[in-house]
Specification:
The chain is α/β, with parallel strands linked by helices and about 290 residues long. The chain contains 12 helices and 8 strands.
């Protein structure tokens, strides 16, 4: 089973561990992701904030490339990429003015798009298309006595016609329960972590991160599972700064949900790129 794959900018750099673990888990499940040739940035936050038309055209180009290669489904791992590409897909199909704009932009690039491609997040692919039974059959090392909180972030459930509820998503909960771990209640599962605003309004974003870490610690979580590169970065890399700012002592590992699945599936730790986090995953990794 093959799907087109749009990795996005972070998958080949800061979130390489996400890509590696996603590819390893899907390979074990018999799914092959084939990277779109000559893909480009999805036009995320920096571009969409100042040039929304350009942003949508950038996403449309990726969809056109996949369609030209004969694919009808594009899988993404990054929540921001998912939001941008899903927006382009939805607007192309439902908004004549947006469709005309994207078609015009693509024409200047010598490309066209017929709207035949559907965008899927990897979490959607695993839970709603491959299915829980297929995931469960691949688990060989259940994560007994491990307590996990699922943190979705604000983008995953909020693109146009997303696959999960924007306020109370459950797809990652379902995937994590299959590993044998105890999935804890987490009321802040879809609360924003501040994303790239950390670069300009650090004190405000540190407060957002602290609130998320506080609840995870209060619930007794051994690990926070995420599905977004920016969420992973903020919750993991800035824990030391949060502790300095608020007088706290958080040391909670933050892993991609694909890494958690890979551990439970008994996959090679090197293929899951474990060990890259600022806060060591310790016991969870060594099960």
């Amino acid at each position: 089973m093959n799907y087109a794959y749009m990795p996005g900018c972070s998958s080949h750099s800061s979130s390489r561990d996400y890509e590696m673990s996603a590819l390893a888990v899907l390979k074990a499940l018999g799914v092959q992701l084939e990277e779109i040739k000559d893909w480009n940035c999805c036009g995320s936050t920096p571009v969409s904030s100042v040039a929304p038309v350009t942003s949508m055209a950038l996403s449309a180009r990726n969809l056109a490339l996949a369609e030209e290669a004969g694919y009808r489904e594009v899988v993404v791992t990054c929540s921001s990429c998912y939001s941008m590409l899903k927006r382009a897909e939805t607007y192309y199909r439902n908004d004549p003015a947006a469709r005309e704009m994207m078609a015009g932009a693509l024409k200047t690039m010598g490309r066209q798009f017929e709207g035949m491609v559907t965008v899927k997040h990897i979490l959607e692919l695993m839970v709603y298309h491959l299915g829980p039974e297929r995931l469960a059959a691949a688990v060989t090392k259940p994560l007994k006595d491990v307590k996990i909180v699922p943190y979705y972030g604000c983008l995953l459930g909020r693109p146009q016609k997303a696959f999960d509820d924007p306020e109370t998503p459950t797809s990652m909960d379902e995937a994590l329960r299959i590993t044998g771990a105890e999935v804890l209640r987490f009321d802040r599962k879809s609360k924003c972590c501040g994303g790239s605003v950390m670069l300009t309004k650090q004190k405000a974003v540190l407060r957002l991160v602290e609130e998320i870490l506080w609840e995870a610690a209060d619930r007794g979580a051994d690990v926070i599972a995420v599905a977004c590169p920016l969420c992973q970065l903020n919750l993991d890399a800035y824990q030391t700064r949060v502790n300095a700012e608020f007088g706290t002592s958080y040391r909670i590992p933050v892993l991609y949900f694909t890494q958690v699945l890979g551990i439970a599936m008994g996959l090679d730790k090197k293929h899951l790129a474990l060990g890259k986090t600022f806060v060591p995953a310790g016991r969870v990794v060594n099960i």
